[in-house]
Amino acid sequence: MSWPAKLGLNALAWLVCILMFFPVFWLILTSFKTNALAAAEDPVFVFWPTIAGYVNAIFDNNYLHYLLNSGITAIGSTLICMLLAIPAAYSMVFRRSKYTDSTLLWMLSTKMLPPVGVLLPIYVVYKNIHLLDSALGLVFIYAAMNLPIVVWLLYTYFKDVPAAILEAAEIDGASLFTTLSRIVVPLSLPGILSTGLLAIVLAWNESFWAINLTNVHGATLAVFVSDFKSARGQFWASMSAASTLSVLPILVAGWFTQRQLVRGLTFGAVK
Amino acid sequence: MSSSLQNRRLRSIALIGPAALYLFVWMIVPLAMTVYYSFRRYNLIQPFVKGNAGFSNYAKIIGDPNFLAGLVNTLILVSSCLILTVVIGLAFAVIYNSEHVIGKNLLRTLAASPFFIMPVVTGLVWKNLMMNPSFGLLAALQRGLGITPIAFLSQMPLASIIGIVTWQWTPFAMLVLLASLSSVPEDIKEAAYLDGAGAWKTFRHIILPQLGRPLYAVIMLETIFFLIIFGQIYVATSGGPGNASTNLPYYIYLQAFSAYDIGAASAGAVVAVILANIVAIFLVRMINANIREDT
Question: Where are the beta strands (DSSP E) in chain A?
């Protein structure tokens, strides 16, 4: 490649990066402004930073309550998912029957179900069993939402465990539980961890269920942030600080796990 | 022998059973209830009006111009976002796959960021910080160019939503296609180069054919996610002005939580499920082919 072509290509690569990342950068920058400065007509790039927006989000707007709910729903649903999916994926890989493929496909097909298709009954049932507006209600629904992806991903990871080791364990008389906890899980730990992270990211960013099923007690960060959509005037610095606090953990996690996320979301079509 | 076989089968049911049962209880049972509600008179404002509704809920929503607008908007949203994210994502992937780009890992990681941003935050950022007609960055840019700033979200609501969704999802197409591009063997590209193929010919005849499966995966998955877009519309336009940016999920949300008409909302949901399933049939076929290939 000639040097002008290289230069052009690099300029293009930087331009693409700036175009895509700029709104995120601008959000983070705005979060350190005062509300007056954030609403300036002409964009301000250089200013004396303030953490007033963060103080406002954390102390006046009860950020920690929503953070706790987001944490509970993301981690709780992921744990349920793992408990259900590890045995299921194990049996799909190591105890195949003629029903295995169709079960796997059926599980995936529930992922094609738009959430609105099941929203109303879940809303009505939750209302009756007092799970409406509770983090626990979201835990259950997020677990169901992510279960198909988690089963599929674990399936692709478990396939890499050598069958010979399992056969040896079986001959030695290892129980199912021993095989799982001593061989399968430790050998595919990196895969299990990245799958878990994917489930956490998906649950953390979810807004449809959170907005429709919770408003105060069980509200997650998605609900917290969406409250800024109206009636808060132009408190954009506060909004930006709240948004930054809500996306930063997942943004950083996403940077480190891009590949696994893509692998998970394409059900392993791309490795 | 037969008892040990039976034993094996029992054990395998015990392993898959809980997961299958969980999905059944949380997804399939509610779906059946939605279908049931769609044939019932069920309005939270009129709790005493009950009974069989026949197809009247369906007639009601199909006769509702807002529903048709929602359906049309959904189709426009899905198809435009698909085309834009795939074309732009492919261009980005080709750029970041080049070995000549300095610091490409950092650049692509930063460029991938929109995908990890919570959809409601995406909606807020674009509504308030980028597209606001007086204080937004785009307005400042337009003033700098001597143009009267456009009020994007009220003047061109659907196009704005398409822009926002494209920004959010282009990184996904980029990441998937990048992963596939980087797995095209170097020596094949080198051989093509030695045979005198230019950059375009190499791309067209060597690289593009390898992208078939991942492209298919991107298109099918994005279709499913675009069919259920909610967060961005909820915060950025609330479906308006009028019904200009209302898609099916948002329409159903309004029917259920503003009009409190569970029956009509359920009928809308059933239509949305049918629409998604037409898409899903293709996707399941693709995945089925993948399973066969793997085993």
Answer: none
